Amino acid sequence: MPTPKINDQEFQKPSEIARKKEFIKKPYIPLKLKLYFAHVFAFLWLLFSIYLSKNWVHNLGEVTTLPIALFIIAGVAYIPGYINAFMVFGLLFDKQPPLKVENPTIPVSVLIACYNEEKSIRTTLEYVAKQTYEGPIKVIVIDNNSKDKTFEIAQQAGDELGLNIRVIRESHPGKHHALNAALKIVDTEWLITLDADTILMKDSVKYLIRRALSSPKDVCAVAGSVLTRNSRKNFWTKIQEWDYFLGIASIKRLQGMFQGTLVAQGAYSLYKTEVLKSIGRFPDVIGEDIVITWRMLEKGWKVYFEPLAVAFTEVPETFIHFQRQRSRWARGMIEALKRIKPWKQPLGFVKYATTMNLIMPYLDFVYTLFWLPGVALAFFGIYWVAGPMTLFVLPLALLQNFILYTYQKKVFKQLNLRIRKNRFGFVFYVLLYQAIMSPISLWGYMEEVFQLKRVWK
After folding, report:
1. How far apart are CA 45 and CA 99, in angstroms?
2. For 182-229, how does the pLDDT look when each residue is reduced to its tens digit (9 = 90+)?
3. CA–CA separation, 358 vs 75, rounded Å?
4. Backbone angles phi, psi at 392, to 5 degrees
């Protein structure tokens, strides 16, 4: 699978002429028309799936009942197929808007919240210091009640690297407390949040700012592209590599195309400072980046995605840490749905996308409690839920991944990054990843419903 080779000597400025050619001889299609076409294609795929599944519905209905059969099949085939078809067709229309600003120079702040990050903070700051951005970069490191030497190492590293750095302490535990403490002293129009274990490519800040200043005035945030940094480590990091490279990236590209990226992730994103302050700062939730993004969208602001603004982050290396992270993500989505209702979103695509999130618990419930047992039964020749017919969805999933891989390959070429192969991880990602993710997500939903103790690590 694609693993970037991080070598500063390989990074060269992409050819401006080659990039501009992407916008030549391509007819402009309005966003509303793209959205309409994507829905039509997805609806036709849904009708085709329903037609092909008549025998499946009949046979399962004889074992259960017709309503239960439709409840199961809609959750494992109809709705997921519609969503995947929408994504495939939408991605075919994806084209980044042309840039109006090539070399921005406005000041920008970089906020890095830390808790016991003495081993990684210097490396993170080194990559900030290597940025090619021509404007002033002000770095604010927030030591969030660390028990180690994070504060001292950050201050020393910042001084040695020649950064315009300010290291502050925030004694109240919680990332939102750390970010809000820094937000009080930010004096730049735009700010970037960056995780302490995440490193930037040397043009990353420039790409984020350039996209923001080239966008309409109602764009208040730009999500960067986050990929795996430790993808060679073991089985868990190898499959996550594909998830970040294809799964998460495909969703963000699609959402960004419709100006409604649902999560400007806290690990690496650009925000308009005044907008953050006007909507109540970072909230006390486990998914603060989800809630803050949805609040922006609820106010009519738009959020973009910049695929060239790449950062590499440390992903969980053990199952227990992976499970905790992804259940937090699922729990964060429920927190956002409780606070910001999909039907209150003013933008059509955002209303549709957040509504899809509203039915995710149902899809994960059916997948976990019906599809996975159905697969087990299929090994014994019992094809009530899973059978040869269900393999029909694989070509659509492979097509989706192929389209995204093609886009991502272009991005890596522009950044002079080399994509290494990871066939082992890809096979497990395509065949087993959802089987791992759905039960974990279901547990995350239950954690929020029963208000279980929050676990970050």
Report:
1. 35
2. 999 999 999 999 999 999 999 999 999 999 999 999 999 999 999 999
3. 13
4. -65, -25
